[in-house]
Amino acid sequence: MGYPDQVVQKASLASASVLRPLSPARVLPFPGPDRSVAVIIATHGRPTVVAALVAALSRQTLLPSHVFVIGADRADLAALADADGGVTVRLGRPGSSLQRNDALAIAGDRFAYVVFFDDDFVPSRFWLERMVAAFERHPDVDGLTGEVLLDGASTAGVPMATARALVEASDGAPAPAMTVSTPVDYGANTGCNMAFRASAIRELRFDERLPAYAWLEDADFRARVAPSRHFARVSTLRGVHLGHKLGRSRGLPLGYSQIANAAYLAAKGTVPRRYLLRLAARNLAGNFIHSFRPEPFVDRRGRLTGNLLALFDLVRGRAAPERILSL
Q1: CATH number of the domain encompassing residue 14
Q2: Residue 184 has pLDDT above 70, yes or no
C-alpha cells in the first residue's frame, strides 16, 4: 500500500531526539497473540497533552504492548523526545485519517487488539485491562467504545486537573459490574476512545478522502469494521475527553466538512443516512442560532459560512471532502 515508505521518508525530517525507533529489548520477540495491545494516537498541535496521555498509558494495569504516536509536524512530538522503547514516535502525513493509517502500517499484524485514543483523552488506568476482558467474554463483538465521564468537545474544554480528578475518583470507587450494550448510536461519542480486534481491521484503513480533522472518519471506519457483527459500549471503560481546542480546524473548513463529509458518506453507504441527515441538520441549525451570540471558544460564523458553502456546492454537484484543503 506504500504507507511504510512514505512514513519513513517523512520521519527522516525529524531530529534524532524526536524520532524513536522500536526498541529490540521491548519489542523482540513481539508480544503473544492473546492479550497484546497496540495503542494508536494521531496528534496535531497538542504536544504537552499527547505527552500526558503517553505517560498515563505507562500506568495502565495492563500495559500496552506498544504505543504508536504519529504527528503532523515536528512540534507535535517535541514533548516525547524521552519516550521509552515501548513508544514509537513518527512524523506522518498530515490529517487524522492519514496519520492513523500510517500508524496501522507500522504496527502491522503483531497485535491482538488495536486501540485508538484521541490525543486529548484521559483514560481510566483500568481501560486496557477491561477492554481485553470484554473482548474475551464476548467473542461476537469486534469493536468497543467506553463511557465518557465528561466531554469537553461541546464546551470550552475540560481542564486537565479536573479530568484527572474525575478519572481517579472513578478508579477509586468499587469496581462496577461490566455491561456490554449494543447497538451503539453513531452519535454517541465513540471516536475519542475505541478498540478493535486486529483480525477485524486487518484489511481496513481510514478513508483518506476525509482530510485534516477528518470529520466522521471514526463513524465510517466503525461501520466498515462490523457491518454484520457487533460494535459495543462497555460500561467499565471510562475516561474524560478534554475537548482541547488547540489543534482544531478553523471554523470555515470544519463547517464545510460537517455538510460535505456527511453527504459523501451518505453516497458511500456506510453510515446510516438518517443519522447523517440529522447530524448535518443539527450542526447547521446550531451554527445559525449561535452565530448571533457565538461562544468565545467556537467560530460559529466561520462554521456557518462553511455549512452554506458546502450546501451551495451540493446543489452544483461539486461538493467534496477534499475541498477544505483549499479553503
Answers
A1: 3.90.550.10
A2: yes
Q: Cα separations (Å) of 187 from 92, 119, 191, 253?
A: 28, 20, 10, 21
User: b/e for 289-301, b at 16 or more Cβ within 10 A?
Assistant: eebeebeeebbbb
The stretch 263-281 carries a mean pLDDT of 96
User: Do strands 37-43 and 113-117 pair parallel, antiparallel, or not at all (unpaired)?
Assistant: parallel
Question: Is there a contact between 194 and 222 (Cβ–Cβ < 8 Å)?
Answer: yes
Estimate the crossing angle of helix 273-290 against helix 251-268, to 10 degrees: 160
Residue 5 in this model has a pLDDT that exceeds 50: no
Lowest mean pLDDT among 59-63, 100-104, 152-156, 315-319: 152-156
For the chain, what percent of residues have pLDDT higher than 70? 87
Count of CB atoms situated within 10 Å of the CB of 322: 13
- 273 sits in which H/E element: helix 273-290
Q: What pLDDT score was predicted for residue 11?
A: 34
Quote the number of domains for the chain: 2
Place of cell 448571533: 292
| 280-315 tens-digit pLDDT | 999 999 999 999 999 888 899 999 999 999 999 999
Q: Which of 207, 241, 275 is the last residue of a domain?
A: 241
In terms of residue numbers, what domain contains 306?
A: 251-326
Of 241, 275, 310, the residue that ends a domain is 241
DSSP 8-state class, residue 34: T
Bridge partners, residue 233, by sequence: 145, 181
277 to 168, 225, 258, 295: CA distances (angstroms): 38, 22, 10, 24
- Say if residue 157 is in the same domain as residue 288: no
Whether 274 and 186 map to the same domain: the answer is: no
pLDDT (0 to 100) of residue 189: 72
